């Protein structure tokens, strides 16, 4: 008897169909696509399909992440895995958020999508969905992204290409699995499961301001709102800023005194921040800032939202950000 799996469809290219009159891609409920284009799925699992919303992924907010977490928790007693089909634009954000919201998941939570719809010839949707279903019934116990035959930790993944089938990568953490003739799971890379009761923590707070630096930018215009609890500076290289442009160091000191967490990230897509390597980065740390280590931008933002939603103490938020909660940063 096939094992029971929860398939949550949220929208995105994977489930779209092309309108015959206009040629424009439009959302589809996925029911007909699944049975029509991948009939063998019924031999892999007893699939329960849920469609809590049908949206362009650019329109998703933390409220939608909460809906997903609650839906997974409500069904967890009678399923053995979860697959979420999702638009690619914010797929890494949703995967990162769920990795923090879902504590001690008893099964894999696999997110996937496609560059071309399931209904199209030469689509990547078919292989992505079949592979996601198979991996969602494996021994993995974390939130991950399956794309182009590779399984990556959700909070370590970035969208790295707009047009290619290998649209996602994990620049700072090795693959969890690779799908070829066989499925090869790299157990040494999996999140260690310490046990514990599966529960969800869904409160999120988006009172975060993000400022991206560029040569000659007007740092004097960086003015957080009154309710801003965290400020993210996307700096150069290892975490550096200009010391000759405005009074950014003084501003960081002021934000720190006001109880706001100041986070330094890098515009570089790979590697680990080392703000203490050069003078400007060291002065940012001395002013009270913390750095994101080797975390992705999506993981850093969703982690901040999660911490702000569950903690009122600035020191506690700071400590949590510098710790690894779900394998999102190297210790």
What is the straight-line distance between the termini?
A: 43 Å
CATH class assignment of the largest domain: Alpha Beta
Order of helices and strands: EEEHHEHEHEEHEEEEEEEEEHEHEHH
Report the count of strand segments. Answer: 18
**Do you know the CATH topology of the largest domain?**
Rossmann fold
Low-confidence stretches: none
State the fourth-level CATH superfamily of the largest domain: L-asparaginase, N-terminal domain
Structural class: alpha/beta
C-alpha Rg, in Å? 21 Å
What does this structure look like?
This protein is an alpha/beta fold and 331 residues long. The protein folds into 2 domains: 3-200, L-asparaginase, N-terminal domain (Rossmann fold, 3-Layer(aba) Sandwich); 208-322, Rossmann fold, CATH 3.40.50.40. 27% of the residues lie in helices and 20% in strands. It has helices spanning 31-37, 41-44, 62-75, 91-101, 125-135, 248-257, 279-286, 297-310, 314-322; strands at 3-9, 17-18, 25-26, 45-50, 82-85, 102-103, 109-112, 143-147, 150-153, 158-159, 168-169, 177-179, 183-185, 199-200, 208-212, 230-235, 261-266, 290-291. The protein has an 8-stranded mixed beta sheet with strand order 4-1-5-7-8-9-12-13, sandwiched between helices. Strand 17, helix 7 and strand 18 (290-291) form a beta-alpha-beta unit. Helix 4 packs parallel to helix 8 (297-310). The mean pLDDT is 92.
